[in-house]
Amino acid sequence: MNFITVVFYYIWQRAAKYTLQLFGWNLVAELPPVHKYLLIGAHHTSNWDLPLALLMMAGLGLRLRWIGKDALFKGPQGWVFRGLGGIPVERGARKNFVSQIIDQYNERKELVITIAPEGTRRSLDHWKTGFYHIAEGAKIPVAMGFIDYSNKELGVGGYFYPTGDQEADLSTLRKFYARVVGKYPQEQGEIRFLPPKTK
Fold first, then answer.
1. Phi, psi of 151 (to 5 degrees)
2. Which end of the chain is more exposed for a tag (fewer CB within 10 A), N or C?
3. CA–CA dist 71, 80 (Å, integer)
4. Quick one: pLDDT band at residue 199, thresholds 50, 70, 90?
């Protein structure tokens, strides 16, 4: 990064921290000590989660990187979405979604992608498994991002490497997120994976 970019990110980080403090939020920074990891966020129950998450990431010095279908990145708007941290995934490609993201991690020295395992603000009885298989395949840790409205805390509260034992790893996630209260607690979904489909 050039000098101007470094100064911009420094000012943006300080401004984000100040804004969070101004509104009474405490920023937690228990980040993995590596340059490549997958950041999940829960519980997603409100539209307010996004602006708070953006301030959180800026305050932690992280650039938002997210995944979108390749159609979003075609034409002039593609430059905008890439500038906003978007990473295109090709639908219908020979490699599935998980394999494409694993390739992105394998090709880079630094990368943090953010995923909301719930995928929606509505209450669900399960989490999507994509984040888990990406981290497992890329051999990277899963960082546990959170916004706790009850205590006005947000940030990253730790991390773990997938062990391959899904139930044990889900237990780790349940234990951590049990203390996290979303803006609308009644919309918080159950932390579990659906069993694999059988033919």
1. -110, 0
2. C
3. 13
4. very low
pLDDT value at 148 more than 60:
yes
pLDDT at 195: 82
- DSSP at 153: E
Euclidean distance between CA atoms 163 and 173, whole angstroms: 13
Greater confidence (60 vs 196) lies with 60
Eight-state DSSP code of residue 108: -
Q: Pick the closest to residue 72 from 85, 59, 61 (CA basis).
A: 85
Residue 138 scores a pLDDT above 60:
yes
> Among 105, 42, 100, 45, which Cα is nearest to 68's?
100
User: Domain segments of the chain: what residues?
Assistant: 3-185
* Residues 45/64, Cβ–Cβ less than 8 Å: no
